[in-house]
């Protein structure tokens, strides 16, 4: 196995940088060394020693070299040496010292000896003699030990935290160890080819050497090759298997399960280290996966593989490469499939400690209840997959084809999520099930039916299916309902809130305004949303905005205006919907803030079109504000505006000296407003209907028609308000003709205005006319009325101030708690009925949504449930 | 008109026994096949301890079949149980009816219990027998007896759950035995206990209790003399209005009807009752998407759309619906009368010259009747001084002088001192509490 990898490395290293190559070799050394003692000592011993991992590896490394030196000694004693041989012996002596030092973990000594050795080799070079295999061998084994020692030390350090028994290297020693590592690296690089050659086939390498030496000195110790092949595998790897890919059966024979687990451990140890090559790790793990036979191994390898894929990209800002994402997605699928097929294996976030190197089977009596618990978390993989998907969408240019291609991956992601859901459903794990359902919900709640159907169709064909499916629920609303209901029942309040909002959003999207509104009001979310996390607040904003659009589509102009009002008065629509970073004029965001802000942004396909939103808001404002403006005759009252943003735009449009043909949506609406003010409803209608952005709205034609009708009605009202002073009577049939409204509608509108005392007039049934009664007020009378109003306003202000003082949300006796507060509550409510303005201001203090809620009636204050 | 029948909606919120009158009424209206209604009655009766009644119904439905044996058996059982329970209850009753004991009993329940235990060896378990016997009596239709026992039980028992249950039972018994005053009293105490209960369970329980109470109270409010006013008072209070909107919008029919019926509230009625119509219209409009029937539609057409023709149409439909409704049946004529009045009032307020014939048509009256009606109307209503009938042209002319400016100023400033003093008390209350919390700041 390791051999195979090495070959792979080599072919790669020709292109890749040297340092990378070196890393690999150092990584791979550990597995190389291990099979040998395992073979020697036998499986049982290895298994037994497995519990104390550090010890066994320690003895291994010493075992490795021990026999060699023993064999060497007697030979050296009798031989007469040449100068060359002398050098060799010298080298071997240093090697011996190093080995001894190694046994006692004295890295200072090793470091010194190694320096000596390097100098000797340098000399060897100078006399242009070939490098003895001994040196190469030492390099390899040293590297091995260094790695082991480093690993051990790390382990020791960790242990030290828990129990103070372990032997941590002292400072100088540790320093020497690191120095050693650096030096080794350098020399290994220098003799790269030799090391590689040695690793591929030590025997051949030594033979080559001895041949070389034999040319110059025939007495060269050929026997050395004999006792040495400790490093060659007993299993007899064929020499020439280097580039040949070996079949699966062969592999399984070659690498027992321990090797896989060991390799896995090696990879895991290297994980997160500074110099680890992540791509290489992934490759190793992929190979391991091919080899893995048992479910346990496959689970373990998959767990490691998926996490290392996610590790691949360390930077937070950029997204994961798409191929990697796709393979991660496939592997998560695979993982779910395995775990679902083998109920005896369970993946848990918290498990008891177990031996990483041991193959575990459910039948083992040590496993409680016949279930093998493995550390890991599928739900976090799913979460991460989803997050990475979003991140990639955030980073891809939304107007390119790449974005669309990427968007197509949502289908497979959705499948994965559904599979995970099915898995958790079967295993009854409520906590992750809630999370995964939330993920699923988030993928479908804002999508039109067709898209959801497509996504669901993909789920339908997969082999593992959750209980809640489009097919079983009938409609998308049914599906979303069942998902949400599950989340409502689960204990997690955050998920519940989000599910609620998604559900409301879905209803709003499907023009089910009343249900959506009732749900929003009954959830009492507007009271607590300020303390929620930012993502949920964004979702809340989106929901409220969608609700406003829904009201607009349904022709509920007043509700639409009231709902959208709050978000538009902030003038930060894009920011609040997480569809763009707000440019603040006087305040510079710190890079962290900016980064956080960027991460929050929604991917483009989820955006709510702000231009459309603005059009809906301004048009509904126009329909409410213009008749209101016309009904007010004194300047004093004119300052009170229902929709400030609209009024501001209108004032601005008024100030312009020349008006050209309308270009933007705003221009259209402003000119339409002016036309409406002048009573030219037809022009107004044409202007509004020619706004292009309506095409983005579903059922655009119906909406336009609805708008035309509203414009007719409001046009009539505006006309009556504006021109009433100039008439004493006005024929109803004329009005009906002018505004193309049926006579009945006209009568109804006029009656309504008379009844609510907006218009001082009465109908003359026999003549079919409206008779206006108008009284001119004298100056004193006007002033008296003004002062009455002002006094009233003052009392209101006082009440408001007290409200704020008593706590913004509570109000003084707003909520009737029991019998005591009831009386007061009633009073307040009556008063509220009297002054509409109070409501608005009070709501303002409560923040967005609250006002909307109040505008719809006071049921929100104490609806039970 | 069957689609406007509310029996199906109301029944789930009623007791089995309370449903019988509804079904009986249904069988009289011919909205549904008599046989279907009878079957429904039979199904209901099967579950009670009234085997005779059930057997009777059975033979009515299946005249050619023998009455099943089970009824006879059940009858035996019932008699046995009755005997047993009566014996148990009698022991307690003997003690309680003893005049000495009646004198010795005080307000404090704990003390009473102790007293009974000490002197007469009466335990809580025995007292509970009263409850069981009362319940049993109710189940076989002896309502007044049930009411008595439950009353006694409630006086003595300290068990909260059973007490509540006994309260419901007493209310049902009073309703079924037609003691409306007692029922009204019971209703009030029950309402109090529901509202005041700081429930241990979820708020949903309270909502359910309120929903039930709303339905049960219909029996009382539409049979008691002052019921309509009280109904408005109760149903329009915020919590019950919310309950209606949330869980049973069909109650709006009764609310709307009561509002129309209570057009001219008695002197001294609370402002809530006086403004009932306005409130109801608001709610009707708001809940239009959930619930609609000719009665609510009438109000909507009249006061929201000002479409007098449509209002007239709805009114004639409403007449039928009302006639068929169990609760409102008796008030049909009254409702019509009041509704006419409302139409003509609205009509007069928006019009200057009214053709009497036209108006009569609107009111579903012949011209002569119409004239009489209108004259009465003018006499009664506050526009008496401004309206004149021109018999020559057969029109009414209404002259409505504009409201003088001083009047509007007075109106505007009227409530100010009240509000200010309200502020004052609130401030002093706040002083006692030691200040409120900081205002919540809207972040996003």
TrEMBL record, chain A:
Record-linked SUPFAM superfamilies: Winged helix' DNA-binding domain
Gene Ontology CC entries for this record: eukaryotic 43S preinitiation complex; eukaryotic 48S preinitiation complex; eukaryotic translation initiation factor 3 complex
Residue ranges with Acidic residues bias: 10-30, 55-74
Chain residue ranges for the region called Disordered: 1-76, 218-246, 804-865
Record keywords: Coiled coil, Cytoplasm, Initiation factor, Protein biosynthesis
HAMAP family per UniProt: eIF3c (MF_03002)
Entry coiled-coil feature ranges: 139-201
InterPro entries with a match to the protein in the record: EIF3C, EIF3C_N_dom, EIF3CL_C, PCI_dom, WH_DNA-bd_sf
Subunit structure: Component of the eukaryotic translation initiation factor 3 (eIF-3) complex.
Source taxon at top rank: Eukaryota
An individual GO BP term: formation of cytoplasmic translation initiation complex
Compartments (UniProt record): Cytoplasm
Species this protein is from: Mycena albidolilacea
Comp. bias regions, Basic and acidic residues: 814-839
Known function: Component of the eukaryotic translation initiation factor 3 (eIF-3) complex, which is involved in protein synthesis of a specialized repertoire of mRNAs and, together with other initiation factors, stimulates binding of mRNA and methionyl-tRNAi to the 40S ribosome. The eIF-3 complex specifically targets and initiates translation of a subset of mRNAs involved in cell proliferation.
Protein name from the UniProt record: Eukaryotic translation initiation factor 3 subunit C
UniProt record similarity statement: Belongs to the eIF-3 subunit C family.
Chief place of localization: cytoplasm
GO molecular function, one term: translation initiation factor binding
Source species taxonomy: Eukaryota, Fungi, Dikarya, Basidiomycota, Agaricomycotina
Record bears the keyword Coiled coil: yes
Record has Transcription as a keyword: no
Domain PCI: 604-777
Automatic annotation (TrEMBL), chain B:
Keywords: Cytoplasm, Initiation factor, Protein biosynthesis
The keyword Cytoplasm is annotated on this UniProt entry: yes
Compartment annotation: Cytoplasm
Database matches in PROSITE patterns: PCI
Keyword Transcription regulation annotated: no
Pfam families xref list: eIF3_N (PF09440), PCI (PF01399)
GO biological process: formation of cytoplasmic translation initiation complex
Domain of life: Eukaryota
Cellular component per GO, a single term: eukaryotic translation initiation factor 3 complex, eIF3e
Domain PCI: from-to ranges: 220-403
Molecular function terms, GO-annotated: translation initiation factor activity
Assembly notes: Component of the eukaryotic translation initiation factor 3 (eIF-3) complex.
Entry function: Component of the eukaryotic translation initiation factor 3 (eIF-3) complex, which is involved in protein synthesis of a specialized repertoire of mRNAs and, together with other initiation factors, stimulates binding of mRNA and methionyl-tRNAi to the 40S ribosome. The eIF-3 complex specifically targets and initiates translation of a subset of mRNAs involved in cell proliferation.
Protein family: Belongs to the eIF-3 subunit E family.
Protein name per UniProt: Eukaryotic translation initiation factor 3 subunit E
Gene: INT6
């Amino acid at each position: 196995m390791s051999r195979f990898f090495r070959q792979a490395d080599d072919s790669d290293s020709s292109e890749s940088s040297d340092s990378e190559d070196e890393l690999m070799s150092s990584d791979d050394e550990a597995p190389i060394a291990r099979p040998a003692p395992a073979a020697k000592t036998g499986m049982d011993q290895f298994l037994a020693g497995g519990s104390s991992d550090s010890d066994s590896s320690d003895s291994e490394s010493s075992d490795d070299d021990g026999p060699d030196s023993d064999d060497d000694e007697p030979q050296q004693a009798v031989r007469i040496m040449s100068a060359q041989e002398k050098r060799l012996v010298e080298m071997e002596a240093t090697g011996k010292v190093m080995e001894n030092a190694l046994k006692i973990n004295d890295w200072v000594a090793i470091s010194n000896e190694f320096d000596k050795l390097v100098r000797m080799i340098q000399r060897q070079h100078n006399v242009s003699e070939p490098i003895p295999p001994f040196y190469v061998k030492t390099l390899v084994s040293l590297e091995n030990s260094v790695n082991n020692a480093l690993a051990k030390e790390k382990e020791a350090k960790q242990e030290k935290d828990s129990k103070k028994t372990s032997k941590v290297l002292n400072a100088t020693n540790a320093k020497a160890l690191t120095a050693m590592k650096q030096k080794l690296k350098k020399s290994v690089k220098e003799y790269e080819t030799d090391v590689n050659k040695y690793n591929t086939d030590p025997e051949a390498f030594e033979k080559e050497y001895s041949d070389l030496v034999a040319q110059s000195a025939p007495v060269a110790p050929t026997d050395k090759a004999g006792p040495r092949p400790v490093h060659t595998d007993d299993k007899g790897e064929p020499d020439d298997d280097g580039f040949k890919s070996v079949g699966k059966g062969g592999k399984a024979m070659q690498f027992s399960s321990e090797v896989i687990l060991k390799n896995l451990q090696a990879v895991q140890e290297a994980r997160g280290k500074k110099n680890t090559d992540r791509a290489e790790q992934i490759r190793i793990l992929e190979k391991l996966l091919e080899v893995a036979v048992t479910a346990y191994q496959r689970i373990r390898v998959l767990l490691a593989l998926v996490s290392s894929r996610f590790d691949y990209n360390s930077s937070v800002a950029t997204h994961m490469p798409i191929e990697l994402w796709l393979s991660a997605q496939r592997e998560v699928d695979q993982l779910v499939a395995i775990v679902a097929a083998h109920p005896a294996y369970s993946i848990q976030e918290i498990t008891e400690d177990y031996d990483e190197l041991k193959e575990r089977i459910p039948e083992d009596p040590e496993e409680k209840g016949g279930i093998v618990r493995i550390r890991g978390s599928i739900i976090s993989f799913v979460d991460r997959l989803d997050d990475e998907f979003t991140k990639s969408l955030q980073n891809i240019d939304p107007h390119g084809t790449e974005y669309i291609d990427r968007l197509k991956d949502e289908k497979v992601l959705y499948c994965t999520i559904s599979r995970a859901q099915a898995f958790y459903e079967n295993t009854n794990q409520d906590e992750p099930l809630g999370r995964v359902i939330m993920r699923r919900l988030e993928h479908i709640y804002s999508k039109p039916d067709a898209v959801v159907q497509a996504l669901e169709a993909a789920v339908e064909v997969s082999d593992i299916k959750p209980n809640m499916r489009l097919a079983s629920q009938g409609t998308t609303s049914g599906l979303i309902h069942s998902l949400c209901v599950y989340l409502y029942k689960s204990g997690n309040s955050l998920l519940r809130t989000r599910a609620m909002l998604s559900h409301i959003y879905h209803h709003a999207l499907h023009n089910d305004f009343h249900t959506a509104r009732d749900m929003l009001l009954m959830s009492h979310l507007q009271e607590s949303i300020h303390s929620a996390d930012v993502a949920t607040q964004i979702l809340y904003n989106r929901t409220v905005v969608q609700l406003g659009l829904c009201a607009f589509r349904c022709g509920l102009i007043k509700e639409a205006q009231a709902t959208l009002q709050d978000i538009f008065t902030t003038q930060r629509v894009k920011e609040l919907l997480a569809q763009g970073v707000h440019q603040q004029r006087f305040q510079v965001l710190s890079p962290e803030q900016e980064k956080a802000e960027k991460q929050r942004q929604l991917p483009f396909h989820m955006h709510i079109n702000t231009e459309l939103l603005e059009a809906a808001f301004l048009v509904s404002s126009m329909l409410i504000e213009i008749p209101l403006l016309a009904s007010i005759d004194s300047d004093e009252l004119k300052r009170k505006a229902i929709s400030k943003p609209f009024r501001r735009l209108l004032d601005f449009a008024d100030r312009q000296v020349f008006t050209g043909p309308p270009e933007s949506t705003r221009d259209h609406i402003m000119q339409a407003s002016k036309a409406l003010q002048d009573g030219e409803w037809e022009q107004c209608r044409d202007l509004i209907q020619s706004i292009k952005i309506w095409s983005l709205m579903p059922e655009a034609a119906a909406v336009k028609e609805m708008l035309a009708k509203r414009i007719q009605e409001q046009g009539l009202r505006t006309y009556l308000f504006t021109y009433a002073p100039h008439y004493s009577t006005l024929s109803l049939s004329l009005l009906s003709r002018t505004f193309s409204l049926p006579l009945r509608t006209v009568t109804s509108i006029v009656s309504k205005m008379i009844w609510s005392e907006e218009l001082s007039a009465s109908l003359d049934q026999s003549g079919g006319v409206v008779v206006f009664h108008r009284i001119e007020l004298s100056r004193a009378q006007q002033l008296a009325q003004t002062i009455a109003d002002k006094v009233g306003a003052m009392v209101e202000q006082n009440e408001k101030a007290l409200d704020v003082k008593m706590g913004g949300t509570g109000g003084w006796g707003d909520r009737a708690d029991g019998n005591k507060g009831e009386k007061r509550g009633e009073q307040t409510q009556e008063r509220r009925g009297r002054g509409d303005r109070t409501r608005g201001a009070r709501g303002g203090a409560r923040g967005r949504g609250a006002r909307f809620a109040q505008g719809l009636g006071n049921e929100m204050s104490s609806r039970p449930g | 008109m069957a689609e406007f029948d509310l029996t199906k909606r109301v029944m789930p919120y009623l007791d089995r026994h309370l449903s019988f009158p509804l079904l009986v009424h249904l069988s009289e209206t011919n909205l549904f096949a008599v046989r279907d209604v009878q079957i429904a009655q039979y199904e209901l009766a099967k579950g009670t301890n009234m085997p005779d009644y059930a057997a009777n119904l059975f033979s009515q439905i299946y005249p050619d079949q023998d009455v099943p044996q089970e009824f006879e058996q059940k009858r035996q059982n019932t008699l046995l149980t009755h005997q047993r329970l009566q014996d148990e209850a009698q022991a307690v009753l003997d003690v309680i009816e003893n005049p000495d004991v009646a004198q010795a009993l005080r307000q404090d329940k704990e003390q009473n219990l102790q007293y009974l235990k000490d002197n007469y060896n009466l335990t809580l378990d025995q007292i509970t027998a009263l409850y069981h016997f009362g319940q049993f009596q109710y189940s076989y239709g002896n309502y007044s007896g049930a009411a008595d026992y439950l009353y006694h039980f409630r006086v003595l028992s300290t068990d909260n759950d059973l007490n509540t249950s006994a309260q419901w039972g007493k209310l049902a018994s009073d309703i079924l035995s037609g003691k409306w005053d007692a029922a009204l009293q019971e209703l009030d105490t029950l309402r109090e206990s529901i509202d005041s209960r700081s429930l241990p369970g979820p708020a949903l329980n309270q909502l359910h209790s309120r929903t039930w109470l709303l339905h049960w109270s219909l029996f009382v409010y539409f049979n008691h003399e002052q019921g309509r006013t009280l109904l408005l008072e109760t149903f329009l209070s915020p919590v019950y209005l919310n309950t209606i909107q949330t869980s049973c919008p069909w109650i709006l029919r009764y609310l709307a009807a009561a509002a129309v019926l209570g057009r001219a509230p008695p002197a001294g009625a609370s402002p809530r009752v006086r403004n009932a119509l306005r409130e109801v219209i608001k709610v009707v409009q708001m809940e239009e998407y959930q619930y609609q029937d000719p009665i609510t539609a009438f109000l909507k057409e009249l006061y929201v759309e000002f479409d007098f023709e449509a209002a007239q149409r709805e009114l004639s439909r409403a007449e039928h619906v009302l006639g068929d409704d169990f609760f409102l049946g008796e008030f049909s004529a009254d409702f019509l009368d009041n509704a006419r009045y409302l139409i003509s009032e609205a009509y007069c307020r928006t019009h200057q010259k009214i053709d009497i014939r036209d108006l009569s048509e609107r009111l579903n009256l012949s011209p002569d009747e119409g004239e009489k009606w209108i004259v009465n109307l003018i006499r009664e209503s506050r526009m008496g001084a401004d309206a004149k009938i021109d018999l020559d042209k057969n029109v009414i002319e209404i002259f409505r002088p504009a409201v003088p400016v001083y009047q509007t100023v007075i109106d505007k400033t009227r409530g100010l001192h009240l509000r200010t003093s309200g502020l004052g008390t609130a401030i002093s209350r706040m002083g006692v509490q030691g200040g409120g919390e900081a205002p919540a700041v809207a972040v996003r």
